[in-house]
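Justification of computing resources. Each target in the renewal requires a structure prediction run like the one illustrated here; the chain below, 194 residues long, is used simply to show the kind of job we budget for.
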Amino acid sequence: MARGRPSKKAHIVEAAGGLFTQQGYQSTSIDQVVATAGVSKPTVYSNFPTKLVLWEMVLTSLTEQAQDEMEKALLHLQSKKELSLIAGWILLWEAWVNKAERLAVYRILLGEQHKMLPSTFVLFTEFEAVLESILSAWIAEFSVSPMNFFTLKAVSKEALLTPALMNQAMMNKTELECQLDDLLVDSSNIKKAK
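Resulting structure tokens:
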């Protein structure tokens, strides 16, 4: 391999990742990967014996990319001292759902789970753990209980991730911020009442 050039394997993964993102798992064929990557079919099959093995490598690559991108987003937000818990929380969620590649991961796992192996679900858990760890690091800057974390995450999934997956409009940012703030206020009032 020449210095500075990606390996053929990495090039195939990148090409397949683009196809899976655009077309989904079912509609992407190995022949399309071969044509997009500009390699021979034996080259693809010598590196990836099945389409599922190729998908798992794409998922691993997307997880690594997501980790890098989300860590950068978190560092940027942590540098803004005036940012509230909820404002930063929403910005992190928006960074997560505004990437077509990440939405494709959810769509593929939801639509094709009957074709996936247990190893694929382990990789998906690692993928989702990226978001979980970034959100946990963000709220560590504030005083938030595990129950509030769970509630914030559930509402955010419903307000931001689910509409993005269904190509629908997400909840208005100001409205979401008010609802999440209210959840935290209501929760703290319950604790005080006990």
